[in-house]
Design goal:
- With 281 residues, the protein is an alpha/beta fold.
- It has a 6-stranded parallel β-sheet, sandwiched between helices.
- Strand 3, helix 3 and strand 4 form a beta-alpha-beta unit.
- It is globular.
- Keywords: Hydrolase.
């Protein structure tokens, strides 16, 4: 990925829906062993400071399907500015690599569009690329993604809640198994419960629904890599390939470098050392 020593590279990680900076910790440890610095971002409404629905931690979870999210007013602009702020903090490193996963592709792409001088390469790990279609929902609802799992995980009406809500603390074994099969099917079972209970329930609705515009002169000039997940059940390989192809048609002067990882949508949980190795190629 770079001819510079890894000691000159810093990776900036942007998580996907319902996750946080913590998801990247095993990958960051692996990168540190390879000599690379890294920092992980908590997007607004995620991480330890994420506001939860008032009944989420109570017995029976009262109001979970109907209570408006306290993240309803958050915007993709808010999330992109958080990424830009982090990129500014690390720009003193010789090389900055922005890595984004899944729904985080929208805010990360907007950040790169706004401040391309802060990014030397952007890596999409089975992540939304807005160059072909501007909304993540445009790809999630495409025929290429028709076999994806996870539709039954949503709780309540996203339009009324102002968020795409899931229930990581569900007591329903069938629901928990669907969550595992969708995102973590190759993560060791003995670790899965820790991963799911660390998730937040709400993704601000703006993230998958707000159009993100990128241009050839700014986002398009940044070298970019797509890391495909070959057995991804949340964002199918077919729709990953569609995003790559449409982005390359839109920005033909700077096409993606494409690599493929085995396994699920969550290699940071299932195989973080392999993910770290792929990032430094």
């Amino acid at each position: 990925m770079t001819d510079l020593p890894l000691t000159g590279t810093v990776f900036v990680f942007v998580h996907g829906a319902w996750h946080s900076s913590g998801q990247w910790a095993p990958t960051q440890r692996a990168l540190a062993g390879l000599g690379a610095a890294s920092v992980a971002v908590d997007l607004p409404g995620h991480g330890f400071d994420a506001p939860l629905p008032t009944g989420y931690l109570l017995p029976g979870q009262p109001g979970l399907p109907t209570e408006e999210s306290r993240l309803a007013a958050l915007t993709t602009d808010d999330c992109a500015e958080t990424v830009v702020d982090t990129l500014r903090q690390v720009r003193h490193h010789p090389r900055v690599v922005l890595v984004t996963h899944s729904a985080g592709g929208g805010p990360a792409s907007l950040a790169a569009e706004r401040a391309p001088e802060l990014v030397d390469r952007i890596v999409y790990l089975s992540a939304f690329v807005p160059a072909g279609r501007p909304r993540f929902y445009d790809y999630l609802g495409s025929p290429e993604n028709a076999t994806a799992r996870g539709q039954t995980l949503h709780v309540g009406d996203p339009q009324k809640l102002g968020a795409v809500r899931i229930n990581p603390l569900s007591a329903d074994p069938a629901y928990v198994e669907e969550l595992r099969q969708t995102h973590y099917h190759d993560t060791p079972r003995e670790h899965f419960d820790r991963w799911r209970t660390a998730l937040s329930p709400d993704l601000p609705l703006a993230i998958p629904t707000t159009p993100v515009t990128v241009t050839a002169a700014r986002w398009g000039r940044i070298p970019r890599t797509f890391l495909r997940c070959a057995d991804d059940r949340a964002l199918t390989p077919a729709v990953q390939d569609l995003m790559i192809a449409e982005a390359d048609r839109a920005m033909p002067d700077n096409p993606f470098t494409v690599r493929t990882l085995p396994g699920s949508h969550s290699p940071f949980a299932a195989r973080p050392r392999e993910l770290a190795a792929a990032l430094v190629l």
